[in-house]
Amino acid sequence: MTRILGISAFYHDSAAALITDGQITAALQEERFSRIKHDSEFPARAIQACLDLGGCTISDIDYVVFYEKPFSKFERLLETYLLNSPRGLASYLKSIPSWMKDKLWIKDFLSKKLDGYRGPVLFAEHHQSHAASAFFPSPFLSAAILTADGVGEWTTSTLGQGKNNNFTLELEQEFPDSLGLFYTSFTYYLGFKVNSGEYKVMGLAPYGNPVYTDIIEREIIDIRPDGSFALNQKYFNYQVGLEMISSRFSSLFGHPPRNSRHPLLAFHKDVAASVQKVTEKVMLLTARFLHEKTGEENLCMAGGIALNCVANGRILRETPFRNIWIQPAAGDAGGALGAALAIWYQHLGNKRPGNLSGDSQQGSLLGTYYRPEEIRSFLMEQGAVFHELDDVSVFTKTAEKLVAGSVTGWFRGRMEYGPRALGNRSIIADPRREGMLDEVNLKIKYRESFRPFAPAVLEEDAEQYFTTGAASPYMLLVGEVLPHRRKEIPAITHVDGSARVQTVSESGNRDFYRLISAFKKETGCSVLLNTSFNVRGEPIVESPAQAYRCFMRTGMDNLVIENFFLEKSEQPDGIRKTGPQD
Length: 582
Fold this sequence. Notes:
single chain, 35% helix, disordered C terminus, nine-stranded mixed β-sheet, five-stranded mixed β-sheet
């Protein structure tokens, strides 16, 4: 038996993944345990959870692999500072101490942290980890590969091809030209948090008009026919500064960067629409070129840009690729999994199964789970009032409550790996109710009213509601809500008639499938509103304790933890309902 532990850390979304004889045993993000969103620290708790789920200790691990090469990244930082000196001194002085303390000496650091481990510590390149995370779990034995993010060591995007147990990355874009940093710079300009608020830009875009695309393409980004590009660095400051953009960026648009506390104006919505349109153009050109170069009908994607589900939907609909598979943990968290898989297949030379019946991501349900006795004990300690239901009643009762207008926290099975709640750590509601979007946004999630919610739909019924054109189990494709359905399910229909669809199959997530089926039996509607089980600024809940706390401090009506059913009206007043900052 061969066990491989993959680790990503120190930039954002640190994570750990355990591979056992090529099978994904566990994969988890550190943020779920630390409660620090996008936590970048060493994933000690995620590693321990992987070991626990694998029934092993660190001494049982055969290989440890880090998801990128620190010396190459440090070389890029030093060279960038030297080329731009004396500018960037403040940024240099801020970043160098952390490099000298931990980041540069990862091998020694890991050896100390992983007490009891005696095997080798290996390193993968950043975009190799992304590519491996996209190709090896995919349902394809042959596929084109596209990765794109902010930056790894030097690389910001790659184009390649995978066959069986091997892949090659043949073309790349290098720093400082980066589609990820381009999009993040606009995220910063619009007043959202860098490396966190990019999805808000995507959600805001449909409210505006792309009136600034010509300015962006004329002044900021020079896009070539093959999708490669050059960024005009006079508008950016991310190479050496503590901010993403220069003063020229603001001057170009005639407005200063938005303060996050200030209202969103029509101008901001138009900028969001414009940067989204330009990003989609780059991705479409790149995908078409990649298809022309490889001749593949399948495409695999990873990297932070692969979370742009609007662009993904257009790639599927508007390029020659017939099938697309995107790593659910497409950002740096997925690098831990990709690095481990790269060791199993490429370093050790193991073969992939000859006949793939689907992907090996296991619905991305790769995290922790809790036994009934643990849940019961916790609820009793809290003095919570709960009803322990059988394995049929829990679905029928939840469906009945949803039909009556209740918003429910749904906590069952193993926690999701990646940024999306896929039906195991979800807040769910009836999408047919006109005011449900505002109710969940304002009373429960405490987030901006413009942000949409995803529909979870029975896979076999998806074409009756949406035009995604393919199964979308990981909520990474945006399609259109069919016009005659938009009034029927208004709470998940975005302002432009689109929706970020999650298709749910019985084989992919049996319990969530049973819940939607019970709702369909009550209503005839195969769709539920699905959003992550958290409030703004916090990670998705990991434990029953976190789920109960979120339930009691928000306007949620019901909570389901496995077969334990709680109603808010029956609970004690020991925890008062407050907002996310309390």
